[in-house]
Amino acid sequence: MAKKKIRSILSDPRYRDFVKRYRYDWIRFAVEVIDLKPSFQQREILTSVQEEGSRTSVSSGHGTGKSHMTAAMLIAYMVLFPGSRVIIVANNERQTRIGVWKYLKICWIELTQRFGWLQQYFILTDTTFYAREAKGVWEAGAKSCRIGNEEALAGEHAARLFLIVDEASGVSDKAFSVMTGALTETDNRMLLLSQPTRPSGYFYRTHHELAKPKGDWTPIVLNSEHSPFVSIKFIISKRLEYGGTESPEYLIKVKGEFPTTVAGMLLSYTALEKASRVDVDLPDEWGWVATCDVGNGRDRSIINICKVGGDRMQRVVKNERVLEQPSTVDPVRFADIIHAECSEDLYPNITLVVDSDGVGYDTATCLERTYNRRVQRIHWGLKMFTSADKKRFVNKRAFANIMARDAVNQGRMKIDRSTKTKDQASKIPCGITETGAWAMMPKKEMKEKLNIPSPDRWDTYCFTQLADYIPHEEIITQEMLEQHEEVGNWVLEGTDV
Predict the structure, then answer these.
(1) Catalytic annotation on 344?
(2) Could you say which of 167, 257, 368, 434 is catalytic?
(3) Which residue(s) pair with 303 in the sheet?
(4) How far is residue 32 CA from its own chain's centroid?
(5) What is the mean pLDDT of the chain?
(6) Which domains does the chain have, with CATH numbers?
């Protein structure tokens, strides 16, 4: 006679012993059930979250194992508490689900290899994890909390409810109001995970006035410098990339600390004064670059001729000349001036870099069509190309300014000695967004709110961080010129290449 299949896990005699062993010891669960050896930082989170009705807020830098630990806690709560409901909440529901679900699948595979009998009671799909006997009730899933959609979080009530909020620093106070309003039962838990991207908002408050002993929240700070999953090489690279250990970005993304402010001026006048006198060492294969900011009648047009070498965090810039034009010079006339001043006889293989987002389009086109000059067009309102850069910088303007800032601070950029340049560069408002990306205040707001005019001279130094260049001693062959002309014709004709 066939053995009768047990339909409910609650009727399985193995389940009682399983729950007894692991419900109140999630570190043991991580080690024995899913083969995860938690770091001392992860153990601190597990110890806090396993408490009934816990409120835990985790501020973290890179590489501390947040996603893997989140998956481990999700699966522990689901498996150990019958009828439980787990909701992962984030502004970007899909991206968060993809990240956590990858580790959830890893954890589930490890669990079923050790406790295969559990597999008959739970189903894991690409979007949900649920108990076979109570789908829609005993279930884990993800929800969005983007601004304007906060009310979608309403209606989540259960005796066993666990809310996990990812990138919590960027979640609105309205969304938190909706979520915390659902935590009405004794064992309703909430876990906040985020880089501390702003010194305000609900997430910030859980580490300050809402923290224990006065409040209910257990604040935990995970410093990447202390994580066993992060190499010294990585830390050193981030110190260089983020502009030093005291820069807001390093404090946020490595130390997991809230900076005193995430907004301010890009550079100090003292740093710029030093940059006007520094003696930079150029690499052997440096090239001439003329960065050109085109005025619109109110602003002056600028030509900045520099020697440029290296790339990104190794880029070196040495100013040779700055030519400021009268405001009466129109974009077409400016092209004539650029062609005359930037002769290849004086500056071999010089690359002309032109701001082409507005009136500069005419200048760049005139240089190409009339004088057959090699032009690199700058469109710094566009987003960066790589995913990593998109996370760090709102657009190319932010990238260029931050790279130029770091070049100044690290002695890799020599600027001209004009007080105009230093005045402009010391009055560039910038800040870090709620998602941890650098952003520059729009020029219209700079003018209207702070009465700061367009920083035309400083912009030309920022363009050097986006510029391509040809080594000044490289021989340009006829074949290379023909290829350049052919590509230029494709662009002008709008041919699909």
Answers:
(1) no
(2) 167
(3) 292, 323
(4) 35
(5) 89
(6) 10-229 (3.40.50.300), 263-490 (3.30.420.240)
